[in-house]
Amino acid sequence: MSNQSVEKYEFKADMKQLLHIIVHSLYTHPEIFLRELISNASDALNKLRIFRLTNSDIISPEEELKITIQLDKENSTFSIEDTGIGMTKDDLIYQLGTIASSGTLNFIQKLKEQKGQPDVNLIGQFGVGFYSVFMVTDEVTIETLYAESGSTAWKWVSNGTEDFLISPSDRNKRGTKISFKFKEEYKEFAEEWKIKEILNKYSNFVDFPIYIGNERVNKVEALWHKKKEEVSDEELFEFYKFIAGDYQQPLGHLFLNIEGNVNFKAILFIPQTPPNTLFGDLRDKTLHLYSNKVFIRDDDKDILPEYLRFVKGVVDSEDIPLNVSREVAQSSPAMAKIRNVLTTRILNLLEEWAQNDKEKYYKFYKNFGSIFKTGINTDFSNKNRIIELLRFETSSLPRGEMTSLKEYVSRMKPDQTEIYYISGPHLDIVEKNPNLEYFKKNNIEVLFLTDTIDIFTIPYVREYEGKALKSIEKADIKIESNSNDETKISQEQKDKLIAKFKQVLGDKVENVVPSSRLVDSPVTLVVGEQGLDPQLEKMMQVLDKDFTVSKRILEINLSHPIINNLLRKLENGNEALVNDAIHQLYEGALLIEGYMKNPVDFVKRMNRFIEEATKI
Ligand code: ADP
Ligand code: MG
Predict the structure, then answer these.
(1) Fewer CB in 10 Å around end: N or C, the chain?
(2) Closest Cα to atom 12, ligand 1: which residue?
(3) How many structural domains compose the chain?
(4) Does the CB atom of residue 369 touch ligand 1 within 6 A?
(5) Are residue 230 and residue 210 in the same domain, yes or no?
């Protein structure tokens, strides 16, 4: 091969950084390299399987799908070869030589945050796999031939620091061969027993034969095809780690063998904690779909509804035809049936936890509740079951304890006809909202909606056991006027005061009315009957810059000393002070609601008041 045909490519800056981190931080688990290479080979073989379904024009179509490892103890060399899809030149440059996925960038971020000893399990989770090989070697050679007939073979060489070289190769077999010599301190990996030990640990479930030389070493066992009783907890856990890239025991699992209307086998897991990729990352390939042990895909959006996407595992059904494109698989009637059965089984499991193992259920709810709740908006046939599974903190419960709607209703006072809630970004803020005062004083329980998603889902619940769900921040809730009957203000004075508020605030507010709900605060803002929940309005503002917040109704606490003092000042003709005070009260209420746009005037007025109060 002439030198002219060798092309040199620089790694990108972030790639160099990643390589550095991998080689220098993960050295405590060098054996990881093997898991990563096997998993890439297995991916490549899976890709070939799928490719073969739609393309007859491939190199050596009859060639066995397999992984072969060659070891040379004398020279400390290693190679791993697969008969998979192979790589084009572009693949070598763009798939292997750059950080393509957001997952990998997250990985780097995560490592930086962790500072100390990074968590090794992160590697597999974020798919930075291949480069872990540079932990154990100084130079890697890849020779690869893409499976499509007529493809050219390429050779890739790199020492994993600055750059890599690409040149034509004379490889004539489909697939990829990766070879290197172990660094002196890792020469043990060139020994067969060592490699076998690692394979046993990491790659037992790989669904392709793995050979060392001519000896087949893995069992190629699809756990889900065994009988439930024959699978030990350890095997299940190993399998879970393999599937989910997680290292903690799952919170729970289902082992299903369904026969009847639709036939399938499945092992599903609910993890303890969400992966870093919970929202949005499409690389979260942790629900594997098989058709009779033949892998179909691991990113299917239809085996489970969106709101159950925290579930990991494997689903295998002969009823899903293999030789079809994704679109057909999705609309296949078997798919819909499988989804229904799985959804029902998962809901059963969650109900059982909610009933019999509160701690487990809370743990689940804390970690996955936000996603789970969205089922209320999307899964009409199971809406009521999901509503029963909702849990809330409330104004009557100690922190950390939660209630179901059923329990809430059972505690309602005989004359209470509505279920009350208040929403806000955080418990500390919600608890101090002036609109709660009346409810606290009268021991009426209020649900705290502090999860952002609540405000999108709760309006869909509408009512529970015939009781409407109402935000206490709205004007139209039923409040007995009691406390404020004690006010000593005459009707005439009341009118005068309210007229003054209206005059000062003008069209800043929808209305000004005496309040029945305030106890300790002088004023509060509530939303008119037509308005949206305040928290929802805030979300809308984030989504849509042009969204205008509905005008608020200002409620005044006529028995509050400030209001009474104001009335006296007004009657004494102290207009300037009263005007300032009204603005101040109004903006103070805005501040509490999180709507204060410009604090400058507020602070100036406050300074005037302080100056007045501190005069000698
Ligand atoms: P990931 O497997 O998560 O994509 P890796 O770093 O392990 O990340 O691999 C990067 C990419 O290199 C793969 O996505 C694939 O495109 C390519 N690749 C690696 N090994 C092989 C292989 N044996 N056969 C074909 N392509 C491979
Ligand atoms: Mg990989």
Answers:
(1) C
(2) 96
(3) 4
(4) no
(5) no
